[in-house]
Write the structure tokens for this entry.
Amino acid sequence: MKPKKLAKKLQHWEEKLVRQHQKLAKFKRKQSRKEVEDYIFAGPTGPVKLSSLFGKKKDLIVVHNMGAACVYCTMWADGFNGLYPHLADRAGFVVTSPDTVAAQKKFAKGRGWRFPMYSVKDSDFAKDLGFKKGKDEWWPGISTFQKKGKKILHVASAQLGPFDPFCPAWHMFGLLADGVNDWEAKYRY
């Protein structure tokens, strides 16, 4: 294929992919919203209810992080750290994991994370939303919620993984001559 024709085709595919992501987000928002309980998490100052994580916002973004044992979840959280002021301007934003509060504090300090973290270790929150399977099988993802009066509604969820739209590193590596090329995330480089 000639370079100009290929460039035009690539532009078309990229534009189509953006439109598909927009459609997917729209369809997820159109799902029927299910009321969830006001879960209790462990926080830096003691137990905290899901309803309080909204702050003064009507919307909440919760990241389901697998904890310090997952180098990929760490990479995603590093990226969310940079976006945190923007995200927190639009909605409440927190990161949850099965780690203890003490372990979260120590790990977050070492990475320079600014966002609030809460432990869901002793809560059914992750399991009820589909991000915990079995006794100790945690999955990464994002869930969004909306507060309507005293009700908390689950709006949408997405799983995290290579080439998802939430971590740009994969997409940038995909543009390299050899692609990702067996690259793996690390805690330190």
